[in-house]
Amino acid sequence: MRVDSNLLNSLYTGRLQNLRQRAESSGISKSGSVEVLRARLIRQQVLAELDLSWEGIQSMSHKEMRDVLKVFGIKSSGSHKERRQRLWLHLSYDSRRMTIENLAEMNRDDLHEMCKKLELDLTGNRTVLMGRVAGVLTSQMNGWGRIKRSLRRNGLQTSPFQESEPEVKVEGETTPEIAIDEFHAVPAEALLEDASDSLLMGLDNQPSHVQGDILTIHARVGDLERMVGTILRGHGGSWGDSERDLLLRLADRRGWPIHEQFVKHRVLMVATNIAEVKGAEMASGGENNPLVEDTGAAIDRIRSKLSSLDSNGE
Description:
With 314 residues, the chain is mainly α. It has helices at 5-13, 16-25, 34-46, 54-58, 62-72, 80-92, 100-103, 108-117, 126-139, 149-154, 188-200, 208-218, 221-234, 241-253, 261-277, 296-313, and strands at 238-239, 281-282. It folds into two domains: 5-95 and 144-154, no CATH class; 183-313, no CATH class.
């Protein structure tokens, strides 16, 4: 791919006022934040020959998609679908406004359209659709909306196509090594499905900021299951007050939004359901803890799902 490096460099380092003047002189809308305006200018001046509509994005090859993302100065690694999602988000939204918390203000039709453009399942009610979009926003966090800091400060030092960009890591976050076999080898499919359903129960009745917090955690339900399994293996299969406290500390260290009482209650409830289904020994305080609901219904649902999985595998 050939680009005008001098023009691209000036767009990377240009301040808002300069970018607005450039846009006005070229007949391009000068509204929006500096990052939105920068993306618009790159699209219409640097990559003017490319079809960057949603349909055009769908037709790009894996390599071409990587090169286009590099021109925009954002994360370029990931699967083909992840790259398509990231590019469409970068061209369509302001990352400061398109947040998980703001999804709670969108109606079902808008969420349905977002799911369509993000290539997600279109079935389900508003809360389910919201959860799917939140999952993408979480997985794509820090990957779009703003060019890399080094480009803003120093501009284009080398060709953007020389080497692959490393994955974006959240500072201070570490992922513990997890053994291949889960505690008591309970199939993850059933646990994840039930945990997802349990997290979202009654969410429509909560304030928008609480909905946003739950949706953030819902997008990481797989991490929640692995954290529970890790704690069980490290504590001899016991699940009680100390294990729940440890879970909350680990979640807080990872930046999970668990400060609201409803959110903390729901996370502990789901985590305890997971622990019990995995065969944990419920330590003193586990069943009578006011933060934990009766798990019988959850276990019945999971057993039903396990039976369904076994039947489908025959």
